[in-house]
Amino acid sequence: MTGPTPADPAGTAPPRRRFCLRTRVQFGLIAVIVAATLLATWQFKQAGDGYQDAVAEELKLQAAVQEEARYVYADEAPLAFRVAAAAGRAEALGPLRDDGRLAASEFALAEQEAVSLRDRARPESIIGSDRYLDAQKGYDVPRRLADQEKQHPADHRLAPGRTMAEGDRWALWGRVSLAVAGAAILAMLAAASVLRPEAWRIPPPSAGGSRRLLRGVDPIPQPATASPDRRRGTQLHLLVVVLLFLLPLLQLAAASGEQRAQAEASRQALRLGAAIVASGQRSAFLTQAVTASHVADIHAAAREIAVVYEKDSPAVRHERAVAAAETRHASRLRVMAEHMGRAPAVTDGVSVASVAALRARPEDWPDMRAEQNSHKDLADAAGVRGLYLAAATALAVVAEVLAAAFLESGRLSRMGWPTGFAAVSIGITAWAMLA
Predict the structure, then answer these.
(1) In whole angstroms, what is the distance from residue 250 CA to residue 385 CA?
(2) SS3 helix, strand, coil % of the chain, rounded to 5?
(3) Distance (Å) of CA 283 to CA 32, 189, 201, 230, 331
(4) Strand 133-134 relative to strand 138-139: parallel, antiparallel, unpaired?
(5) pTM, rounded to two decimals
(6) Distance (Å, rounded) from C-alpha 357 to C-alpha 275?
(7) Rg over CA atoms, the chain
(8) Which of UniProt's keywords are assigned here (predicted)?
(9) Fewer Cβ within 10 Å of end Cβ, the chain: N or C?
């Protein structure tokens, strides 16, 4: 055991020194600011992860939409239309095949084409069974697309919009944390400049008292307690400290806004690309099918014209009957083309993403591009705002160093330098937030 010290002959421990209430409040406010800033940083990081996940999901979803649209409308649908057209032609000429060689020959060719193509098709393809066949309208291509999507259910269960909304919720909580930090900064500013309650001016303890307070330890400049000749300089110092607390919060908000706008612009670009490709596949198939019906109608009209001036005979009457049957078949082909190439709907079992892509029209693309560009402009503006705020922060650091140095050395006449840097910092901050 250590014996009593000369300063403490009775061996009693010296009383523990405590910060005064004012200093404790300052440290408490700083702790709140630091904790809220760190929490906001983590929340905005979670929001950024959500935005990036939404872009990744959008990429995977739109890639699936494009691939399935290509497979169904470029690979399967043209062959299905050809089979349906051949079967319809055989059905139209069937009643005439015993009346003459022309109908019999054309019927045999059409029937053989339809049967051979179906026999060679894979059982799981659109023409491999009668599952998608409507005798009058051809094959149900949208329902085939819906079944094709069911082979990759994970891709179409992706919900980039929901993931984006989850990121927005994290960003909202981040803004709440920033608001808490901002409120603490304002409280710090008010406490240092305005509030001077009696409890902050506790008189020294009486002789022999056990309570000893540490005074003069102020992590935040205190204009309210500064001497009159130093009050203006201390006010400037406090303003610079507030800037150093506030500017990182604004940078966090700007970075989060930039991330979101970039993610939304990327999603719009992916949706636009998928819409152009997928709707282009469907439009190309529909155009080819409608053209085929027009060609069939032209052939029927040409056959009718070829015998219009011929003398009446059984062969001529037979050829006219064939022309009439082909004309009816051409009208039916047009119905088939429109049915098979129609834009799918959610009621067909097709996913919302595929419906949106396949129903898009060229006149919709400028609006989609404009929306993408608007998000890109928002991202650019947020990025520029972040750069300006970083420059303002650097100038505030210079102002803080100069203000602290001149106050410490008592050279108050030199406070114009930190004042200038602080003014430029405030000006840049205002420009960044308002421009």
Answers:
(1) 9
(2) 75, 0, 20
(3) 60, 65, 82, 78, 20
(4) antiparallel
(5) 0.83
(6) 4
(7) 40
(8) Membrane, Transmembrane, Transmembrane helix
(9) N
Q: Which residue has the higher pLDDT, 34 or 203?
A: 34
Contacts of residue 117, Cβ cutoff 8 Å, sequence gap at least 6: 79, 82, 83, 86, 127
Question: For 281-296, how does the pLDDT look when each residue is reduced to its tens digit (9 = 90+)?
Answer: 999 999 999 999 999 9
β-sheet bridge partners, residue 17: 212
- What tokens were used for 385? 């705002």
Q: How many Å apart are CA 370 and CA 227, to the nearest integer?
A: 60
Amino acid letter, residue 281: Q
β-sheet bridge partners, residue 144: none
Angle, in degrees to the nearest 10, between helices 160-193 and 228-306: 160
pLDDT band of 167, cuts 50, 70, 90: very high
Select from 265, 272, 260, 258 the least CA-distant residue to 367. Answer: 272
d(CA 374, CA 404): 44
Let me know how long the chain is: 435
Instruction: Give tens-digit pLDDT for 100-115.
Output: 898 899 999 999 999 9
Instruction: Give the list of residues 6+ apart from residue 35 with CB closer than 8 angstroms, or none.
Output: none
Structure tokens given for 133: 């066949």
Assigned token pair, 15: 């009383």
Q: How many helices (H) and strands (E) does the chain have?
A: 11, 4
Q: In this structure, what DSSP letter does residue 94 have?
A: G
| pLDDT tens profile 359-374 | 999 999 999 999 999 9
- With beta carbons less than 8 A apart as the criterion, state whether 244 and 181 touch: no
